[in-house]
Amino acid sequence: PIHIGGAVYSKFSYLDGTKSAFMKQFWFPKITLTLQPAVAITPAEGLKGQARHRFLNQQVFKLLRDGSFYGAVKHHSLFAALLDAKSNYDASATCVEDINHQALSLKKLALASTILGKQLDKVLVDEKRVGLMLPNVSGMAASFFALQAYGYVPAMINFTSGIGSIRSACETAELKTIITSMKFVEAFELEPLIEALEGEVRFVFLEDIKEKIGVFQKVAGLLTRPKSLPGFSKKPTGEAVVLFTSGSEGVPKGVLLSHDNVTANIEQIHSMLSMLPGKQIFNALPTFHCFGLTAGMLWPIIKGAKVFMYPSPVHYAVVPEMVYQTNASLIFGTDTFFSGYARKADSLDFYSVDAMVAGAERLRPETRATYADKFHKPIYEGYGVTETTPVLAVNIQTAYKHGSVGQFVPGVEYRLEDVPGIEDAGRLFVKGPNIMMGYLMPNKPGVLQPPEGGWHDTGDIVQVDTDGFVWIKGRAKRFAKIGGEMVSLTAVETYINEASPEGHHVVVSVPDERKGEQLVLVTDDSVLSRKTVIDAARAKQVNELMIPKTVILVEQVPILGTGKTNYPEVQKIAERHFGSS
Questions:
Q1: DSSP state, 405?
Q2: 32 belongs to a structural domain
């Protein structure tokens, strides 16, 4: 296969039937040819007719995707990627906008990064990693690239995780300073956090920085050559950003991503979900979440699209209305968030949306069915983890299987290791250009722990079919051993969700003297009883070992700011129940 790169920038090139107004085009663009190793496409013996044609179609399309990725990926810094976007696309068109109607074009974003970065550089002395704690606003993009421009490494702070987790994150990444906004602190009532960490971490408020930016600083910024800034020539293999695992299964770890990791995943996403320049993405996922940062903010900016940044994904009544008003073509979310939007949205709110992509947690069949019936829109389920920047696999219109998380993005190698007691799936290990540099562990602050041999253990039990589609069976930690048999807690939740689609149900395990472990259901559905669960299990003809012995009713099942279930808190609820009974 041969990939021809750069032809899209020719004045003779057309996109979607019309010449793109958002892409710069030239009489003599730079053309690159990327040659890949020869591939033999061999249909299975006996495959005939439409089935054979479909197989060949899929294989050729996969080769085109792979070629698109390998031909486009560049080894440069994130700030260099921003300047590339400014050169390749309409620099005066809006690339990021927020709820306050603060809009930035690629030209203004690059300039704002230069000016703001210079002022931050004066404040940040002998610091490498810098905390960044802001909501989804245009200022987040400007602050992120301001740090990138001057060679600093932003560490994305999850302001919803609590004082203890934020203190741990600062210690783990060895942060001395957190950049934030006083307006944001007051709006989100974070004053107790500031007070608790005072003396341990310095808080720099953007309002104070902006007061120092006058006419002289702006003129100096205009005269500065962006390619002369430290961030432009940063090593592609060097540190670009620190994110923290969600803490859904314990204390958050720091995940260190390189420039190559992020730019590679942007190209991997683009090869699967190709977004035309000028199209709009609606991003309500927080940028302290890797999904919200890479796919939600950086991908559209770097690829010439426009992103509308909304500060909270849990404003279930407002988000659909804003999607309608912004004419968004694509929206990202989790099952929890999409379920919330469906309850509040008008049937026309998502009329402009071409694709909805769900990740971070399993997409329930009920949610998928609701969007098909009420909005006549499909939700494409994907899969990823923070350690892979994050996207690993995703369903797309031309390669889709109901219930799977799609095919692996280009450039990803995988292997499955056997798990005792599980026959049809294995523990997933992945390798590729988007795999993290390594962990920063709470017990060894600042010390990089790279994945062994470049392979990352996802901890997920998956099955990969003959067409390359990935099927998630559950987390390795989310299996219980009952009477010597392995039971998937995710599989138990599946049939319970079907019996009570409106509720939030989580199954955990606790020790059992007789059978080793027993299942406990924690739910917010007051109507759901153990008898209802037993009836649902019998209707589905599931193994009796998959029936929870205890049902605990709570007012609200704990969730994290990312939309994921807070499993440690649910586990504590179950343990407290048995401790007090």
A1: -
A2: yes
Burial 175-213 (b: 16+ CB within 10 A, else e): bbbbbbbeebbeebebeebbeebeeebbbbbbeebeeeb
Q: What is the DSSP string of 257-279?
A: EEHHHHHHHHHHHHHHS---TT-
Task: Examine the domain organization and report whether 85 and 114 are in the same domain.
Answer: yes
pLDDT score, position 78: 96
Residue with the two structure tokens 């408020």: 205
CB–CB of 231/151 below 8 Å? yes
> How many structural domains does the chain have?
3
User: 434: closest CA among 32, 69, 27?
Assistant: 69
Strands 379-384 and 391-394: antiparallel
Domain-terminating residue out of 373, 391, 411 = 411
Q: List the beta bridge partners of residue 413.
A: 431
Residue 458 within any structural domain of the chain: no
Q: 370 is written with which tokens?
A: 């609701």
* Coil vs helix vs strand at 175: coil
Same domain, 238 and 310: yes
Using DSSP, state whether 204 is helix, strand or coil. strand
Number of C-beta neighbours around residue 137 at 10 A: 22
| One domain for residues 202 and 132 | yes
153-156 vs 129-132, strand pairing mode:
parallel
In the numeric block, the tokens 């260099």 are attached to 80
DSSP category for residue 10: B
Residue type present at position 513: E
Q: What is the rounded distance in angstroms from the CA atom of residue 94 to the CA atom of residue 437?
A: 33
How many angstroms separate the CA atoms of 297 and 392, rounded? 18
- Work out the pLDDT band at 23, boundaries 50, 70, 90: low
Does some domain include residue 436? no
- Cβ-proximal residues to 100 (8 Å cutoff; 6+ apart), any chain: 137, 138
Single out the residue of 446, 383, 457 nearest to residue 256, CA to CA: 446
Residue 96 belongs to domain spanning: 78-411
Q: Would you place residue 21 in the very low, low, confident or very high pLDDT band (cuts 50, 70, 90)?
A: low
Q: Where are the alpha helices (DSSP H) in 124-248?
A: 138-149, 163-172, 182-187, 191-197, 206-211, 215-223
> In whole numbers, what is the pLDDT of the chain averaged over residues?
88
406: which 2 tokens?
A: 């799609």
Question: Do residues 218 and 187 touch, judged by C-beta distance below 8 A?
Answer: no
Half-sphere exposure of residue 26: CA atoms within 13 angstroms, side-chain side: 10
Q: Are 24 and 101 contained in the same domain?
A: no
Residue 373: phi and psi, rounded to 5, are: -80, -45
In a domain, 502, yes or no: yes
Is there a single domain that holds both residue 510 and residue 534? yes
Of the chain, the end-to-end C-alpha distance in Å amounts to 66
The verdict on 303 and 333 lying in the same domain is yes
Predicted pLDDT at 486: 67
Residue 248 has pLDDT above 90, yes or no: no
Same domain? For 45 and 109 the reply is no
Write down the residue that tokens 């909805």 correspond to: 356
Provide the pLDDT for residue 17. Answer: 55
Identify whether residues 189 and 57 lie together within a single domain: no
Domain end, chosen from 51, 72, 93, is at 72
Tell me: the pLDDT tens digits for 59-110? 888 888 888 888 778 899 999 999 999 988 888 989 999 999 999 999 999 9
